[in-house]
Design a protein that fits this description.
Elements lengths: L11 H23 L8 H66 L5 H7 L3 H6 L9 H57 L3 H23 L8 H11 L18 H11 L8 H4 L4 E3 L10 E4 L5 E7 L2 E4 L8 E4 L5 E6 L1
Antiparallel strand pairs: 1-6, 2-3, 2-6, 3-4, 4-5
Helix pairs in contact: 2-5, 7-8
Length: about 350
């Protein structure tokens, strides 16, 4: 006969724990529901954060440009050295062939000179070290051997230099990748902040920037600043011809630009080559420390680390490629910390 046992009742302790936990959960839910939502940053606060991120991105961009310039220079140098090595090896081969012809002639006339035979079967450097054998060779053979030795030394130096530069190139490429990632990270972060704005807030920011740019353009074009002259005038005119072109980091024309890409491209249109980065452009001419001494077409360098450059446009205005999300345009020189001008 089955026994009918009474179900085991939960202990008083367990009931108390469960009840307490349930009450706590309800309380937390209530607090969460009644808590005031975190305040969304204002349009101006977002703009300030975005501007800071864009500035950091531009700093990384100029370092990226420097690494890219070094990479291109190294690639050209390596190519030149490799061409020299190839030509040098051809010369060595021709000299060896000439000695081979001498050996053949000697064989036909009665046998190969023992010392020449030694050369043909060993390294000429090792052979020439055995100076006592030189008197067994003709003057022509000695001259050929010395030429081969000199060429082989040159080739060894060239190969060592190429090897070092290839290592530098690998390091530079690695640096280039890191700087590119830094730029992309800053830009992505800035875009995320901008995406938090409403359509109306984005439109308001764009309108503010457009009004400021138009006002700067009127001031620059309607002023009486010292005019650009010579090649600087041509470079400044080239920059004016691309107003409205988008800022793209690492770009140097003809349809998009970063800050130093615009200035280097514009001077190239005037037939003048200047360095690619803003830091290098800061040393490309005569420095002008007083804003009152600036002339239209002078380069203007900004920020303590010299990571931004533009053209002086007259009346306290600059023409430049400001940052990502903008276009080539006029702005007040006072929008950024002025360091000095550069007259190319």
């Amino acid at each position: 006969m089955a026994s009918h046992r009474r179900p085991k009742q939960p202990s008083r302790t367990r009931v108390t724990v469960l009840t307490t936990a349930a009450a706590a959960a309800v309380a937390l839910s209530s607090q969460a529901a009644n808590a005031a939502p975190s305040e969304k940053p204002s349009k101006d606060e977002v703009k300030a954060k975005v501007d800071k991120l864009y500035e950091e991105a531009e700093q990384a961009t100029e370092k990226y440009n420097g690494a890219k310039e070094r990479q291109e220079k190294l690639q050209k140098e390596i190519s030149t050295i490799q061409d020299n090595v190839a030509r040098g090896q051809e010369e060595v081969n021709e000299l060896r062939d000439g000695l081979g012809s001498m050996a053949s002639a000697q064989y036909r006339s009665g046998g190969i000179d023992p010392s020449l035979q030694l050369f043909l079967s060993a390294d000429p450097d090792d052979y020439l070290d055995k100076a006592s054998t030189l008197d067994q060779l003709s003057a022509q053979q000695v001259e050929s051997l010395k030429k081969i030795q000199e060429k082989q030394r040159e080739l060894a130096q060239d190969r060592a230099e190429a090897s070092d530069k290839l290592k530098d190139l690998a390091t530079t490429r690695s640096e280039l990748g890191k700087k590119k990632s830094q730029v992309q990270g800053k830009l992505a972060e800035a875009q995320k902040l901008l995406n938090s704005l409403t359509a109306a807030e984005k439109a308001a920011l764009a309108a503010e920037e457009d009004r400021a740019s138009r006002a700067s353009e009127r001031t620059a074009l309607g002023g009486s600043g010292a005019p650009a002259t010579g090649r600087a005038s041509s470079a400044y005119a080239a920059a004016q011809s691309v107003i409205g072109s988008p800022y793209v980091y690492g770009a140097s024309g003809p349809s998009s630009f970063d800050c130093s890409g615009l200035t280097s491209w514009a001077f190239a249109q005037a037939g003048i080559g200047i360095p690619r980065t803003s830091q290098a452009q800061a040393n490309a001419g005569t420095r002008i420390y007083s804003q009152s001494d600036l002339q239209v077409g002078d380069l203007v360098i900004f920020y303590g680390d010299l990571h931004h450059v533009g053209f002086y446009a007259g009346n306290g205005q600059v023409l430049h490629a400001p940052r990502s999300g903008t276009v080539v345009r006029y702005e007040s020189i006072n929008n950024m910390p002025y360091q000095f001008g550069v007259r190319i």
